[in-house]
Write a structure and sequence with these properties.
This protein is of the alpha+beta class. It is built from 19 helices and 39 strands. The chain is globular and about 85 Å long.
Length: 891
């Protein structure tokens, strides 16, 4: 059992003991369960001084009790999927208002209104066991006299990329401070009224596998004005039903019935928590232009097509289908055809698309979004309808007159198309635009370089950050919206160094780690529905996409980098025991050859990279794990006082490297060859850039003989498999370590600049070759060009936790002008370079409390204090709190 001052935590015990302080183990981070039958393969390892109460204290800081508020829902015994409930509370205020702050949470999504004004959208996606309530501050929207608070709550009911599971529920608490110090408390209780919003028909089908809500909104059924004091409630409004559940627990812990998944049980470890990141920022953005319009003649019913995507259901005819008028675009419809208007935005965004239209009652509009599109008539491949991205459409049905529509859930897009039908006569489209959502970055990213091509790529990376790093750090908002580690976890470098967003990364670490399974491996995307479903599919061999072990490996690196950047161990209190469990699980997998397998593991899988056979990634995976154990996990263990675990991890790392060399190192080629054990049957060698990069970065080549590995990365022979963009950072890091920044710049000015999404969407895509009107992700998470500017070109590397001491190793090569701001806990670090190679003037400004070691070639003679020297380089001390100006004559 975990004891507060025990040194008896063992890795074997984490795997085998079903009685390990169940409450503490969940709260301290064991994950989905504390029981497993797996057995580690090494001798017992004792932790030195981990204190369970540290984790409990960290949890206590997040707890939220909204008493006397109660969980509410509409009075019913069954809640259909995609049900929207309106909650309304009217009250009076008799004195001037000093403040009005509180908390709100609606499962699965809510929109908050006060006196007819939209306030905010939430919550941030979370593990349903530890849901986070959002803060509210609504003083400017309240007034003496009658007031109304309204919450529009959507319950998904089925899995979504941002919602693994849950139960319906709404909870609210507002404390109003009035003049003279009196207080008024408004909270969710039976005084609230609830109404089923039949404008969204309950029970509608999912959009696709990872999008729960296929929205259809009928304005004729919506109770307009319901959030204002003058509204008169009809018989459709009933007193809200209270759910049995505590105000310090999430909706999952109430007695609400999850009739689709039958999840439940009052889990003692569930907990309602405070939102751990700022609310998202929202701003309006009009469409750039009307790109084209045309007509559509239906051969099959339009509803059938959008339900089933029936082939050959329509015939597109050239337009224009509208004309520009003073207040928008005028369309004359008849019952025999539909109008299609396609709009383009300046760049790809994430937000809520919408429009304003003056139309007869019953006019129907399908709003479709796409990341990239060929407008109709521009080529033979241009589609008549833009319904070619995971059924990304929303249907709106007009009431008579002017209608203002906006999607309930957010989208990722640059193109918006409106299909307008079911009307006879004049329709005027008055406005098309979006409400964009962005993370509330504490700082704006600043990176400026002399190469216009590289600058364009960096700008695209920054916009990609805006779209992919929000309340979750995801791989593509237009497809999954799921939070991953591994290839996506690299985003944390840009979040912290370019934006200073440590809170965002801390939330990522905690929420991702909550997806630890009974057996000890992480669900590689969490909180999300996908892997819950894949676990069952893996048991029947129905998918290759099991929980990816290599993402759990990458997650250890993520935790280590966060610690080094911030010095913050508190954010890892819940996470750390989960890392221990994962280490024990990995050790249990080691087989007779002394290596970790990459196939036939059971439910989990190993991925590493697209397009590579399982046995060809075995070398890369084992080197990756070895690097993690020695350079990430062991360091975290030391910081947590777990020295014996750290030593054991280093021993395991050493064994893995030794055995990998024995199986995959070719002394003849002086390379790790991915298929060396099977070369006789395959006939030609296979190399992987990830393997070579890992060997270079962590000095795994025997006798540090990395020359052939560097040469392969530089020359890229045909036998070398290149990683896809989100994993390309490994190759760039390795080239930087080898001093081949020229090849990094070549790559950025070449295939990165040529990526279609860079020029068209101002984003970085999933692939270097992208197709419009496809499922390709034109905004993914491959932001290597941005973080490489900091980590490799500027050469900024923390030497001590919290960046109190760091290394700066500038390698600007042919960049004649370079400037970036790097955010550290002590403040911003500015690095500027101007001039050509050999006559470059540099300026480095360090904040107080941040010392630096400047690393330059041995031939550079500078006025600073030299603190170390080798045959190839010198290290100079740069003092904190001042500006350092110098000239470099050799780089």
């Amino acid at each position: 059992m975990l004891k507060k001052h025990s040194s008896a935590i063992t890795l074997e015990g984490l795997l085998k003991n079903p009685l390990i302080s169940r409450r503490r183990f969940f709260q301290a981070g064991a994950g989905l369960a504390a029981v497993s039958s797996l057995t580690a393969q090494s001798s017992e390892v004792h932790a030195d001084s981990f204190k369970a109460q540290d984790a409990e204290h960290a949890v206590a800081d997040k707890k939220l009790d909204l008493s006397p508020a109660q969980w509410l829902w509409y009075p019913c015994e069954r809640v259909l999927q995609n049900t929207v409930i309106l909650f309304r509370r009217q009250f009076s205020i008799t004195l001037p208002i000093k403040s009005a702050r509180g908390w709100i949470l609606g499962d699965s999504r809510y929109k908050l209104f006060v006196n007819g004004t939209y306030i905010q959208y939430g919550p941030a996606p979370a593990d349903p066991r530890w849901a986070e309530a959002d803060p509210i501050d609504i003083k400017p929207f309240l007034k003496p006299g009658d007031n109304v608070i309204g919450a529009q709550v959507l319950y998904f009911g089925q899995g979504d990329g941002t919602w693994p599971m849950g139960k319906p529920g709404f909870i609210f608490r507002l404390e109003i401070e009035l003049s003279h110090g009196t207080r008024q408390l408004i909270y969710s209780d039976p005084a609230w009224f609830a109404c089923i919003a039949t404008s969204w028909r309950p029970g509608t089908y999912k959009r696709w596998y990872l999008r729960a809500f296929q929205e259809e909104f009928d304005a004729r059924c919506y109770p307009y004005g319901w959030t204002t004091p003058d509204y008169k409630m009809s018989d459709d409004w009933l007193p809200a039903m209270t759910l049995q559940g505590a105000a310090d627990k999430p909706a999952l812990a109430t007695n609400a019935d999850d009739y689709l998944y039958n999840s439940g049980g009052l889990n003692e470890t569930t907990q309602l928590r405070r939102r751990s990141i700022p609310l998202m920022r929202e701003s309006t953005m009009p469409a750039k232009r009307l790109a084209e319009s045309h007509w559509l003649e239906w051969r099959r019913p339009a509803r059938e097509y959008f339900d089933c995507k029936t082939p050959n259901a329509f015939r597109a005819a050239s337009g224009p289908a509208c004309r520009t008028v003073d207040d928008g675009w005028e369309i004359h419809l008849d019952p025999h055809r539909a109008a299609v208007l396609t709009f383009e935005f300046t760049e790809q965004i994430v937000g809520w698309p919408g429009f304003e239209i003056d139309a007869p009652a019953g006019t129907t509009i399908e709003l479709m979004v796409q990341e990239a599109h060929r407008p109709f008539g521009t080529s033979n491949m241009a589609p008549g309808l833009m319904n070619n991205k995971f059924h990304s459409w929303t249907r709106f049905i007009c009431r008579e007159g002017v209608n203002v529509f906006e999607t309930f859930d957010y989208e990722s897009f640059r193109w918006l198309q409106l299909h307008i039908c079911n009307a006879d006569g004049r329709v005027v489209l008055k406005y098309v635009g979006a409400r964009r959502r962005l993370y509330a970055w504490p700082n704006n990213a600043l990176v400026s370089v002399s190469s216009s091509k590289i600058q364009k790529v960096i700008d695209a990376a920054i916009n990609t950050m805006h779209n992919s790093a929000q309340d979750l750090i995801v791989d593509g908002m237009a497809r999954e919206r799921q939070q991953y580690s591994g290839d996506v976890g690299h985003v944390l470098h840009a979040s912290i160094l370019a934006f200073g967003a440590a809170e965002q990364v801390a939330r990522y670490l905690n929420t991702f780690s909550q997806g630890l399974t009974k057996d000890g491996y992480f669900m590689d995307c969490w909180p999300a529905y996908d892997r819950l479903n894949r676990i069952a599919q893996r048991q029947l061999d129905l998918t290759p996409w099991g929980p990816l072990l290599d993402h759990g490996v990458g997650f250890n690196f993520d935790c280590y980098h966060y610690y080094m950047y911030t010095g913050d161990l508190v954010a890892l209190e819940e996470v750390f025991p989960r890392l221990l469990r994962f280490y024990a699980y990995l050790k249990s997998l080691i087989r007779e050859d002394g290596l970790l397998p990459t196939d036939d593991i059971g439910t989990p899988a190993v991925w590493i990279e697209h397009g590579v056979s399982k046995r060809h990634i075995k070398c890369s995976f084992n080197l990756y794990v070895a690097a993690m154990l020695k350079h990430a996990f062991a360091e975290i263990c030391r910081a947590k006082g777990e020295r014996s675990v750290a030593e054991d991890a280093i021993r395991t790392s050493t064994v893995l490297v030794k055995n990998t060399i024995a199986h995959f190192w070719s002394p003849t080629h002086r390379l790790f060859i991915s298929n060396l054990p099977w070369l006789h049957e395959e006939g030609e060698i296979k190399l992987h850039d990830r393997t070579l990069a890992t060997a270079i970065l962590f000095d795994f080549c025997p006798e540090n003989d990395s020359e052939a590995s560097v040469k392969a990365l530089v020359e890229r022979p045909k036998e070398l498999h290149l990683s896809y963009p989100a994993n390309a950072g490994w190759q760039l890091w390795a080239l930087g370590k080898a001093g081949r920044v020229d090849k990094i710049l070549d790559d950025l000015e070449g295939r990165w600049f040529d990526m279609p999404s860079v020029g068209q969407n101002n984003t970085l895509g999933e692939w270097f070759d992208l197709q419009p009107d496809s499922h390709n992700q034109w905004c993914h998470a491959p932001v290597a060009p941005l973080y490489v500017m900091y980590m490799t070109i500027a050469g900024i590397k923390p030497l001590t936790p919290g960046m109190q001491r760091l290394e700066i190793r500038p390698q600007l090569d042919r960049l004649d002008a370079f400037h970036l701001i790097c955010y550290s806990p002590a403040g911003p670090i500015s690095l500027k370079g101007k001039g050509k190679k050999g006559e470059r003037d540099m300026e480095i400004v360090l904040p107080p409390g941040c010392q630096a070691e400047l690393v330059v070639p041995q031939q550079e003679k500078l006025q600073f204090r030299k603190i170390a020297a080798t045959a190839t380089e010198n290290r100079f001390e740069l003092n904190n709190g001042i500006s350092h100006n110098f000239r470099l004559n050799h780089i």
